[in-house]
Amino acid sequence: MAASSGLFRTKLSKLKFRMKERDLDIIMLQNWSNIFYMTGLRTAVMTRPINLIVPLNGDPVLIASKLLERTIRNEVRWIDDVRFWTEFKEAKDEEVYTPSDLIKDALNQIGIRAGKIGIEKGYFSVQSFERLKELLPSGDFSDCSDVLGSMRMVKYPEEIALLKRAIAITDSVFKIAVEDLVRRGRTELDVAIDILKCLLEKGAEGASFFPMVNSGRRSTLLSTRPSKKKICDKEIVLIDFGAVYEGYCADITRMAAVGDIPESQKELFKKILEIEEKTLRVIAPKKAACDIYNYAMTEFDREKLPRSIHRIGHGIGIDYHEGPFLGYWDETPLENGMVVAVEPGINLTDFGIRIEDAVLVTKKGCEILSKAPKDLYQTA
Questions:
Q1: What CATH architecture applies to the domain 5-149?
Q2: pTM of the entire structure?
């Protein structure tokens, strides 16, 4: 279900429109997620820089290591100007090109020697930036990270279809996880490994992140890997994972109880679930991301619960955490086509609870994409 060349050309036209709004003469991308978004290049090689040069007037140029030539020829069909720098000589008389050589040649051919240059300051290394300033001593460099970030927030129908598939795979594996995998005596790591295997068997190409399986006190930990701790009787277990399907990431969280957990934990789970479901009902176009957060926090206050989280959700797409962020600081208006993960939660001393659903913002409200039951799963 690879994206069509037409979709990439549509993205290119939209990017150039944004560039014109910002008075940018050229944009240079190094962030792999943004390069994948603009080109369809699925292969991420973090140790070898890949550069996408997009001039306001002219065609894009993709620059990469010659070692990736076959891969790029296979995955990127719509960009005609692809240039490869030499990493290892294949013949004694072969001319050697560095990334800087090819960037310099491309800029000269495009006719850019000055002007306003957009770069992703959060992703360019200091070395790359210093070299770029040497190539363009008269350039006016501007951070353009938000340009691609804002474009990626609103998904095209093709992207929504891929996200729906990733979420459906995740839903199916949650059923297996709680019915067959989460058991007392098993380690968190064993369960996580089995979840990863199930994702692959169900058609995922991988996991958005290594599955989180946190039991007992470890359910209070955020963004942590599973441990070799054994799951014990009368413990609550937080399970957070997502499938990757053709480059797009799901992210869902559910809770399980091993044996008979304390009534206080069951009651708190019900309160968090009620807050999550109320929050889902207020998601709609034109509402600011921070308004969703503020609504959830009002519900926390009403229930006299501590505010132990700094945001209650985030966008999902090529990255499992991307804009918009449902936090107090993000004033981004929600739009039709955005896909967000809504995950209110609470962390106390002995345990934590979080429930997370993937939601598509529609013209009139939202569509809940994740279908895995949200009850507190009871396991043996």
A1: 3-Layer(aba) Sandwich (3.40)
A2: 0.94
What whole-number distance in Å separates Cα of residue 56 and Cα of residue 289? 31
Please give the helix or strand (H or E) that residue 236 lies within, else none: strand 235-241
H/E segment holding residue 147: helix 145-153
Cβ-contact 296, 275 below 8 angstroms: yes
* Contact (CB, 8 A) for 10 and 159: no
Residues shown for the chain: 380
Q: Which amino acid appears at position 138 of this protein? A: S
Q: Helix, strand or coil for residue 336? A: coil
Q: Rounded to whole angstroms, how far apart are CA atoms 263 and 286?
A: 40
> What three-state secondary structure class fits 198?
helix
* 2 has pLDDT over 60: no
Quick: pLDDT tens for 130-155. 888 888 888 899 999 999 999 999 99
Q: Which two tokens stand for residue 50?
A: 């890949």
User: Class of the 157-379 domain?
Assistant: alpha beta
The angle that helices 157-176 and 188-201 make with each other, rounded to 10 degrees, is 130
236 CB burial (10 A radius; 0-12, 13-18, 19+) = buried
Q: Tell me the pLDDT tens digit for each residue of 208-218.
A: 999 999 999 99
Domain 5-149 and domain 157-379 have a common topology: no
Q: Tell me, what's the pLDDT at 126?
A: 83
Average pLDDT score over residue span 71-96: 80
Degrees, nearest 5: CA angle 214-240-215? 15
29 contacts 68 by C-beta, under 8 angstroms = no
Residue spans of the domains in the chain: they are 5-149, 157-379
Give the Cα separation of 365 and 362 in Å (integer): 5
